[in-house]
Design a protein that fits this description.
The protein is α+β, with helices and mostly antiparallel strands and 709 residues long. 38% of the residues lie in helices and 22% in strands. The radius of gyration is 40 Å and the shape is elongated. The chain starts with a helix and ends in a 10-residue tail after the last helix. 26% of the residues are buried.
Length: 709
């Protein structure tokens, strides 16, 4: 009975779905439910068994009805013709099987009846008493067999009825899920299109949005109330909130020639001089032109012709689960990940790619002011992330002792060298020398954490930059990169966190904030904001832009304490001149989407070159095969190289154990071109270039290089 029927039954009714059925002896049945118990007695053991079988079947049916009870009103036919035909085919098969079972039942009943007649005839014969008892027992067993076969047929019929009853319900549920999935996909696609169109509209809009205008008026109100007298040029001056309040930066063109000081100045406001913002002599002005025309100027120089494309990426589909399901229980470091997740560059080459906008450092050399120089260094630190916006594939993990050189001394004035100095944890050392007046070095260790839906990549280690003529020594660290939709959806990358750049000579600082992406935020995606201040804490410049497009710099001519925020913090309002573009991203080459979204520089990084070290990433066979589109061969080669590296590590571990047993010191792996020293500025142990590589290249003496490929 259903629950509705149970509410209107007579006294003494037992709900079979929760009842307990038991037998005491050959004829008695005990039926209990909660505090109510019934003792039933049958005429014979055969009759008792028929009742027990019927009760068990009824109980099973009651349980199914309770579990599957639902309102079946308004049944619909399956939506798709394929689903309908599949359902009818299944029901037809079940009906056919049931007919076969019914035929078997008829045969069993026929032969069972014949068997019983034969046994009855034997029972009527004059046989010893013991034989009569035996024949009677066999007769009862045959009857039980017939009852059981009938019960089996009835159960099959009930199953078919149940399948017919609930098939429509299951089809409705399945169709609902399919419609929900299609609706969700359409919604996401529509949102993505709207987002892209809004982004393009915002970038192409000549004026400010309504929200920007609101913020502008608020900021102006704060300043004007503090000044007591508003001057005419306030209409053409932009204001910035302080860093701690995550400000919204607004760009309004101002003419510094018409900027004049008001008679009533702010109390305690830091003052700047507009005439310092010289449009003709400032390095900032040259950056506006050169950041757009740098590639044109470079083309005028005699230089080696380099490749502008690589083979298109093959269209291989890969299921992540098909790989991971075979790796359950294995050590993570020993799981051979296929090259399908990679791009044909190593981590050392990706590290070298940070130098794509090296001309920012060349301009910084010409700056006479350390705070101006800090602006270019800040723009350079942001520019290194511009290549990551579309690059969701992971680079190859370098083998221990692997190196990568980029010699552009004649073309761009610098030469770079990277070496993988540690494998567990993976660490790479990098050294760049420029004959145009600067040196950069770093040791980066990558730490990552998988957090279910996304992967956080945290580069550990400081980046050092020193200018030869001034001796200014800048130090900063990278922000966290986050790869979203690791399991399901389209991969995308975001950068978040803060960068503090410190000039350890002048004590100037720049605080850059990378705002994480938020679906509900009104801010420009991938936004970066910052303030450049001197040793005394006085703010000189405001930095603003995005890490995937451009960075601008605005000179602060006046700052004051504005209104108090809702959190109780007092905002600082910066009055600035019109911004200058320090850095703008180069457009991607044609057909970049089929070439792993490589930039012009990235396309040349793995180009074969002569006279490089035998450990150079360009000579790595699995990476070369992948670039050529031979991914299956690359996977085999990658597995061979990784196993070779494990064998070397096991041998090194055995040597360490042997040295320990003998009481000797074991140094472990020693980098070839770098050495570990305590950094005088940060106090950290860091790998620095010890020299010798470029001399070995000139002599072509690579005898000290290990055999890693």
């Amino acid at each position: 009975r259903t629950q509705a029927e149970m509410a209107h039954t007579c006294r003494g009714t037992i709900n079979l779905s929760t009842a307990h059925i038991d037998t005491e002896d050959s004829c008695n049945i005990v039926l209990s439910n909660g505090g109510r118990t019934y003792h039933l007695k049958a005429n014979s053991e055969v009759e008792r068994q028929r009742w027990v079988t019927a009760l068990e079947l009824a109980k099973s049916k009651a349980i199914r009805m309770r579990n599957n009870q639902s309102d079946d009103s308004g049944d619909e036919e399956p939506a798709s013709q394929s689903d309908k035909s599949e359902l009818h085919s299944t029901l037809k098969t079940l009906s056919s099987k049931l007919e076969d079972l019914s035929t078997c039942n008829d045969l069993i009943a026929k032969h069972g009846a014949a068997l019983q007649r034969s046994l009855s005839e034997l029972e009527n014969l004059k046989l010893p008493a013991e034989s009569g008892e035996k024949i009677k027992a066999v007769n009862e067993r045959a009857t039980l067999f017939r009852i059981t076969s009938n019960a089996m047929i009835n159960a099959c019929r009930d199953f078919l009825d149940l399948a017919e009853t609930h098939s429509r319900k299951w089809q409705r549920a399945l169709q609902y899920e399919r419609e929900q999935r299609i609706r969700l996909e359409e919604t996401i696609e529509q949102l993505a299109k709207q987002h892209n169109s809004l982004e393009r509209a915002c970038r192409g809009a000549p004026g400010l949005s309504a929200s920007s205008a609101g913020i502008t008026s608020t900021a102006k109100g704060s300043v004007q109330s503090a000044k007591g007298e508003a001057s005419d040029e306030d209409e053409e001056t932009e204001y910035f909130d302080a860093m701690e309040d995550a400000p919204a930066f607004i760009t309004v063109t101002a003419d510094p020639k018409h900027h004049r000081r008001s008679g009533s100045n702010l109390s305690g406001a830091s003052e700047g001089h507009p005439e310092d913002w010289n449009l003709e002599d400032s390095v900032f002005e040259s950056s506006n032109q050169s950041s757009y025309n740098e590639s044109t100027c470079k083309d005028l120089l005699p230089k080696k012709r380099r490749r502008t494309r690589i083979p298109d990426k093959p269209n291989y589909s890969l299921n992540l689960w098909s790989i991971m399901k075979n790796c359950i229980g294995k050590e993570l470091s020993k799981i051979p990940m296929p090259v399908n997740f990679n791009e044909p560059l190593s981590m050392l080459q990706r590290l070298t790619e940070d130098l794509e906008y090296h001309e920012l450092l060349d301009k910084a050399v010409k700056c006479e002011s350390s705070t101006e120089q800090m602006c270019f260094v800040a723009a350079f630190s942001v520019s290194s992330y511009s290549t990551t916006v579309h690059r969701t594939a992971k680079p190859f993990n370098p083998l221990l002792g692997e190196t990568y050189e980029l010699d552009r001394l004649e073309e761009f004035g610098f030469r770079s060298l990277c070496e993988q100095v540690s494998h567990h944890p993976p660490a790479a050392a990098h050294h760049v020398y420029s004959k145009r007046g600067w040196t950069l070095w770093q040791e980066i260790t990558i730490a990552s954490k998988f957090r279910g839906k996304y992967l956080s990549i945290m580069p550990l280690g400081a980046i050092h930059l020193e200018f030869h003529s001034s001796g200014n020594h800048y130090v900063w660290r990278k922000v966290t990169s986050t790869v979203h939709n690791i399991i399901v959806g389209k991969l995308w990358i975001d950068q978040s966190g803060e960068i503090e750049i410190v000039n350890h000579k002048s004590k100037d600082k720049c605080q850059l904030k990378f705002t994480p992406y938020s679906y509900f935020s009104r801010d420009v995606p991938r936004k970066v904001t910052g303030v450049v201040s001197d040793a005394a804490g006085k703010a000189h410049y405001v930095m603003s832009g995005t890490w995937d497009e451009k960075m601008e710099c605005s000179k602060i001519v006046q700052s004051s304490h504005g209104s108090t925020s809702t959190e109780g913090k007092q905002k600082t309002v910066y009055q600035t001149l019109s911004p200058k573009v320090l850095w703008k991203k180069y457009p991607l080459p044609e057909n970049a989407e089929n070439m792993y979204f490589f930039s012009d520089l990235a396309l040349t990084l793995n180009e074969p070159e002569e006279r490089v070290a035998p450990t150079d990433s360009r000579l790595r066979p699995d990476q070369r095969l992948m670039e050529s589109g031979r991914w299956d061969e690359a996977n085999v080669e990658k597995q061979r190289l990784e196993e070779k590296q494990r064998a070397v590590r096991r041998r090194r571990e055995a040597e360490a154990v042997e040295a320990l047993e003998e009481g000797k010191d074991y140094e472990g792996y020693i980098p070839l071109w770098f050495e570990r020293k305590v950094d005088a500025v940060t106090g950290e142990l860091i790998c620095v270039y010890k020299g010798g590589y470029w001399e070995a290249k000139d002599k072509q003496d690579w005898s000290t290089c290990p055999d890693i490929f």
